[in-house]
Amino acid sequence: MSASFRLGRIAGVPVGVNWSVLVIFALIAAGLSAGQFPRAYPDHAMAAYVAAGIGAAVVFLLGLLAHEVSHAVIAKRNGIAVKGITLWLFGGVAELQGEAESPGAELRIAGIGPLVSLVIGGIFGGIAALLAAGGADNLAVGALAWLAGINVALAVFNILPAAPLDGGRLLRAALWKWRGDRTWAAVISARAGRVLGWLLIAFGLIQFLLGAAAGGLWLALIGWFLLGAAGAEERQAEVGQALSGIKVSDVMSSNPQTVPPNIRVAEFIDQYLFGYRHTVFPLAEDGRPVGLVSLDRVRQVPPDQRERTGLREVACAEKDLTIASPEEPLTELLPRLSQCADGRALVVAEGRLVGIVSPSDVNRAMLRGSMRDPGHRPERAQPGAPRLGWREP
Ligand SMILES: [Zn+2]
Predict the structure, then answer these.
(1) Where are the domains of the chain?
(2) 113 CA from centroid of ligand 1 (Å)
(3) Which residues surround ligand 1, an ion (CB under 5 A)?
(4) What's the CA-to-centroid distance between 111 and ligand 1, angstroms?
(5) pLDDT digits 0-9 by tens, 20-42
(6) Top-tier CATH class for 248-370
(7) Can 101 be counted among the known catalytic residues?
């Protein structure tokens, strides 16, 4: 989910919102101020309902943000980089760049979110109860009570044991701990996600037919989203399975042809692009990678500007490069590959460029891995281990 607006950083993590968050904001604010609040707490001015509805919607989104930030903070504490947090149509996402190293880390990262939502719900519930006891205005109490309820609901929904929900990660952590096979655990929790997706769609359609049109559609839409996300997680688990045990050095092309960073585009085209078969060249200074240039990037420079344009100006900058180490498992590199470097990673050992990994290197490794006989995997050979139908290419 890409952010349409950047809000800033929280705990060092970039936070943004996708425009689609406006849909949930509008649905909640309108639903509360024009429907639920006037019905439940009559005899207030319209402005009071609108203020309570908008206020509750804003605080709800802040609670959602706190939930995601908690995932991000714990992930970072467990050594996983976090690309960013984005709020969107179906809540929030904290994009982690890597996977938990142990079931315990997975459990902590996944568990903290629902816990935070639960605590937020408890706090609002407590405040609402205190205000109610003190005889405060019932609309204000009602808005706080709604916030309490929605945050508890968020926690409960999120611990349903189905990927990609937090509960799916908790299930994965538990199964992983139990059998010691992370991929199997990931496949099971992704399948549970698909089941939940279908259930929500079915529930939603029933509600729709029974007359609760908006709520039913919303539920079905969430189910449909879960279905897609769970399917993607299952495929990802299979990729992990195919690539397990493969190191970056196994697939990289060694000692790639490099280019000095301070030449002009024209010189690069004459000497390198026409001189070698490659379409992508790392820029290197004393053996250290400082950028990456591709045919596509150079092509964007009009012919009459090639003499004037420095190669560095069109290259993917050093800070945007994806750097890998030769010993690193390939599966850990995949989530870090970026658009900037055309999906390539530069492999560096002791500060020197030693290789490059391209998307076709990864594809080849994946195809080869998927041809391996799963029966030869030690963790699959245990008696009684469930047989999973790995998809063959
Ligand atoms: Zn969560």
Answers:
(1) 5-243, 248-370
(2) 4
(3) 113, 166
(4) 8
(5) 889 889 989 999 999 999 999 98
(6) alpha beta
(7) no
